[in-house]
Structures are given as structure tokens and as C-alpha cells.
Amino acid sequence: MQDNDRDLLPEGLGDRLPQQASASQQVRRMAHDVLASHGYERVETPLIEFEKALAHRMAGVQVRRMFRFVDSVSLRMLALRSDMTAQVARIAATGLAEAPRPLRLSYSGQVCTIKGDGLDPRRERLQLGAELIGTDSVAAAAEIVELAIEALRAAGATGISVDFTLPDLVDTLSVEALPLPEARIAAVRQMLDAKDAGGLVDVGGEGYLPLLYAVGPFASAIERIAAFECGGALASRIAGLREIAARVSDKARITLDPSERHGFEYQSWFGFTIYAEGISGSLGRGGTYRILGQTGHHPESATGFSLYPDPLVDLLAAEPQAQRKLFLPLGHDPRVAGQQRAIGWTTVAALSESDDPLALGCSHKLEGGEAVAL
Amino acid sequence: MQDNDRDLLPEGLGDRLPQQASASQQVRRMAHDVLASHGYERVETPLIEFEKALAHRMAGVQVRRMFRFVDSVSLRMLALRSDMTAQVARIAATGLAEAPRPLRLSYSGQVCTIKGDGLDPRRERLQLGAELIGTDSVAAAAEIVELAIEALRAAGATGISVDFTLPDLVDTLSVEALPLPEARIAAVRQMLDAKDAGGLVDVGGEGYLPLLYAVGPFASAIERIAAFECGGALASRIAGLREIAARVSDKARITLDPSERHGFEYQSWFGFTIYAEGISGSLGRGGTYRILGQTGHHPESATGFSLYPDPLVDLLAAEPQAQRKLFLPLGHDPRVAGQQRAIGWTTVAALSESDDPLALGCSHKLEGGEAVAL
């Protein structure tokens, strides 16, 4: 039918009805309250920008995954944001270039891509994150990992686990400790990414084999990588990982997968992925990275995380919720109704004789100035 | 410079830095808390939809003002939302078609247009609103006007005034009370819109002249329009306006401009515009209207309002804000820090010896387990 067809939403785009929207708002509010309490100040970014500005700051943003269109005012290409991290990096390098460092910023909002991601058909997602700009130290990384865990816990996630990785591991080792001919670096990376031990040997990367086995629960995996140590090349990284793990091991299960690079293409020494019980796939990731400065300025170190909480929202929205709503009959005293709202009631005022408190989802009714259960 | 150029934002699009973003979040949170306490359930809508779906529900949405682009998945035209009201109307007619009426929904989010509006260059605005679906009665209109006022007051607006109008006045009167030849209706409307008394007489609308003078403070203007009465054609509307005004006259200054139609093209019997002290232009408008149902279903009555609070956000962000932030020195006890956050402190943890509490905007420092003023 022509007319019904108009009501369909495009593939991968959807509404949130009240129960889902309430869960989504609760997730955002609770997570942002945690970030704010740790001194992370909120910024808001536009839905659209010049395509080049969005693409320019970080290698992780793929222009061809963005909705793009010509601006009738500037006649330049605009893009719908697909990642707010690049926008926050822009703010740090421009509007807040003079703000003291470390600069703590937080953000959240909807981001869009022209196609879904692998098995997930969603083309619009909620992104929520925090950026600590001006430092990529171990202390910064520990704060960011702890904050990501606390924000997700406050938002309602349980059974959180965090997988640590060392994104620039091959770059670090191939310089001296485990030298590789330039031409083979890419092949070794590829075999490590594929966790292909045979392939790794075939391309001459047998020296890197221990990395494939230093995987699993943090306490044991870190010992395996420490044994593999390579003349001190990894000493500071190993010490850093231990410090971060010590800070959060009472809040989440920590695992290590030192050669995992998928999704960490623009991260520097440290990266992490965060998971929660009952949710397939990750809820987000973070790590240390570098922000391109203005022309003539040096790049700046930064540490941050981005969460994509939609699966958590879906999980929370599916939990049955007790409705506590107070029906206000026709002719009720508006002052009494206001007092009931002030002590936390949600009120639903009758507008006509036919308004039915039960049909409208009310659990109570205002009677003689008091809330009486229906 | 090429590189700096990339950092510029397109005309009419901007970031909100921390002070502005904080004001924006506060406005949204406070307003939504009021809406929620009155039983308005939040819905969330996608940033993009099929162009036709956005344009179809209400005459007020202008397709040519939307950013439009081809969807590579469906090969159909998509548009970036320019008005969330049309989306909420879609939800009411589809996903919530079976929900009991009256249905109370609220929403907020960013909306975009390809060009600014008159003197305002903004191409992206915050829209926040409530819709009461299934009724356009006087009781519904009174609830919606009161709610708009309460939401704005909670958000920080002061000196609120509300201007009432009767959008379908000429349609109502021209049928019988003040008959007009079909061909002249448009001209009479135009002269009333232009507040052009001479022109009104010229086009044969002298009978409508009293409408031009029934303007101003509600108490006196309603008496002028009541005197003009026209054999009862306006009796129910006048009684309705009096009832709505009585409900809110202690909360806002009420004025009447019965022939004002600008911005009310898709409203039915009642419309209002809302203003606040210190803000030029209106903060939003609302009224009664009709939603197109699914094919084969009747249109549905509805009442609602949309606020565009950006000017209020700017006003609130300009007010000086006391910073109360607690600096946590290196080696602080994380449990004590957590306790301080639990009682309301915003904390800023030192990450290195060089972190300076004053430069980081802190007012206090954790010392011996207590917050000490700096």
C-alpha cells in the first residue's frame, strides 16, 4: 500500500517507544552523572559538519561510511557525523586550544553511518564518551578505564569485563627487539590479527609467536608476556598494564589480548574493549591516541573511550518495570496534585469523564487528597 | 590557510563549549522532568527518515527546507529531520496506534534546516515538546499551555508571557456569521495577517475589522471579541479561551491576538506562542491540530507544543557560575574521593606532579580526608 509504505522507516533506523526511550535516557543520565562527578565537562557538537573536518583529525574516521551531501550555502560537501570523537578532538584543538591541560570532556549523541556494521544492521547509534586531552600516561589510562567501568555500572550494566591490548606492539618490537624487514611487518601484523600461528611462522614472524599465547585472564597472560620480555622493550608497557589492572581489578574481570588491533587502528600504546553480561559484542572501546593540532602546532596526546550503549538500552528496556502513576480525577485540587508530584509521583490528569485510570496505566488514584491504590 | 579552513564549521552550525552545553543539558533535564511528572512519556526518533514520511503527516513541514540525500540502501530520498512533531505524529499513528488515548508523549533533540530562519542564522536547533494525542478539547489545551509554562519555568525562564490565537477564525466566521465570497477569503486572511485595516476594508472584509482591535492583554481583548460575538459563532471558542487563561493567569502574562496565523498554518481552533523575559523572539508555540492516520483510518485530534530553547540556553550560559570542584592530589585515598563524590562534589584527580588545582578550575583540595578551600 502506497500510504503505509510512507510510514516505514529506512532499514537500520528506528524509533524508541516509551519503555526503550526511558531506558536510553536513564543510561545517558546515569553515565553522564558519573563523568561529571569526575570533572568531565560536557560538550555538544553539531549533527553535520564539513566532510573534510570530520575526516581530517583521526585516521579512524572513514569518509565513505558517512552520509554526505552538498551544502547549498557553502557549496561544499557536508557529512552527518559518524563519530563524535573526531568532533571533540576538533574542539580541543580549536575552541578549547587555550584551556588548561589535562582537559576533561564528555559527550553523547546519535551518530549515523550509511551502512550497518557487520551483523548489526543499525545505521544510527548512541555514542557516549569521555576524553582526557593532553596526556596518555598510565595514570590517564587507568582513570579512563575506571571511568568507563563506573559509567557502565551506573547505567545498569552488570558483569563487566575489560580486554586490554597493546595496539602498537609490532611497531615497538620490530624496531630492535624482534627486528623484521620492513616488507614483512604488514604480513606479521596480518597473521597476528588473524591469530594464525602457522601463517605467522610462514611469513618469518616466529619470534612473535609468544604474543599469540599471552592471551586470557590478565593475571596469567601478563606473566606470559613478561617472560617473553625481549630485553626490556616491553618493560614500561607491562608495568603500565599491571598498574591499570590493579586499579580496576575489583570492579571488572580483566583479560589481555596484546596483539588485538581490530578497532584500534588509531590508538597508540594502550587500548581496551569493554563488555557486559547478557550483551553479545562489545559495548565500546578506548585507549591512548594523538590529536592533530592546528596548523603549526604539534599533535597532542589524549586518552579516552567511546561507548555504544544501544544493546544495554535494549537489555534494560526488556526488564519489566513497575508503573507507579497517580490518576487525578476531574475537578481535583491542582495544589494537591502539585504536592504529589513534588514528592515523586507521576500524575495523569483526567481530561474527560471517559478517561479510565487503569487503561491509562495508573496504579493509584487521588482521593480525599491522598494516593489510593486502584 | 588550508588547514585552518578545515576547522571552520559551516554557517549556522556550532559547538557548545562546557558552559553552554551544561546550560543546554540543564534546560533539557529540568523541562523533561516536568513533562515526565505529568505523565508524558518520552519517545526518541531517528535523525533521518524517508523524505515522504516526514513531509506526509502535517502541512507544516516544508520539504524544501530539509537536507535531503539518496539512501544507498533503498535508493529512495532521505531527509534529516527538521521537525520532530511529524515524527511523533507518525509514532502515534503507527507504533502506538493501539495505545489508549489520550496518549501523552514528550521528545527532544536536534533538528536541522538547510537555511536559517529569517534573522536567525542557526541551521540546527534544539526542539523539545509534548503532544497530547486523541483530544483537542479545552481541557487538553489548558493542560498543554500550563505544561509549556511549567517546563520553561523549571528550565530557568522568567517573566513568561503567552499569546493566544484562534487560527481557524476566518474559516469559522466566513461560513455564516460574516459570510465572504469564496474568492475573497484568501485576501481577507492576508490583510488580517498584515494587520492592514485599510486593506481589509478594500477587499470587502470590513466586518472583520473588530478582530484587528481585539488585541492585547487578555482580560480586555477577550471582552472586545466577546462584544463582537457574531450571533454565537465564537461563543464556544471565547469560553474556551477564558477557561485556559483562568488556568494559567497566575503563572504567566496572557495576551490575545485572535487573527494571528503566522506559524499556525496547521493548527485548528487554538494556538499559542510563548515568550520569556530577556529573550527576543518566541521560545516556541503550540495548539490544537489533527494527525493523519494510517490509510483507512480517520485523522486524530491532538494538542501539543514545541519549544526551541536555544536562546534560553544562551541566556543561562551567560550567567556567571560558581565552580565548586575538589582537587584530589596524587596518592589520595580513592575511597575518600568516592565518598566526596557521593555527597555531591565534582572531583578532579591529579595525574602528575605538574597538575595545578587552580589552573584546573578547582575551588577546594582534598587534605587529611576533607575538602579544604584553596
From TrEMBL, chains A, B:
One of its GO terms (molecular function) is histidine-tRNA ligase activity. Coiled coil: none annotated. Gene3D superfamilies: Bira Bifunctional Protein, Domain 2 (3.30.930.10). Keywords: Aminoacyl-tRNA synthetase, Ligase. The keyword Aminoacyl-tRNA synthetase applies. One of its GO terms (cellular component) is cytoplasm. Homodimer. PANTHER family: HISTIDINE--TRNA LIGASE, MITOCHONDRIAL-RELATED, HISTIDYL-TRNA SYNTHETASE. This is Histidine--tRNA ligase.
